[in-house]
Fold this sequence. Notes:
Elements: E1 2-6, H1 8-14, E2 18-21, E3 26-27, H2 28-38, E4 48-51, E5 54-56, E6 61-62, E7 67-71
Parallel strand pairs: 1-7
Antiparallel strand pairs: 1-2, 3-6, 4-5, 4-7
Amino acid sequence: MIHLHYFAGIKEVAGKAEEDIDWVDGTAADVLKWAKKSYPSFDFSSVQIAINEEYVLETEPVKPGDHVAFIPPVSGG
């Protein structure tokens, strides 16, 4: 199992800030693929992925127990 965290627009689309999913083995790209399939109305093209509070590349392994965050672009002013 991994713990997913959603922020900003994806949180609105998902209707929740976090959820747990069953997970055995894969990469950040595999988790992203799962998220795109689960929430097709959200544009993931600019989303950053963090695992255990560190930004990662999509090739980073994701292991059971990891916390994975999808962080959309943020603007301020």
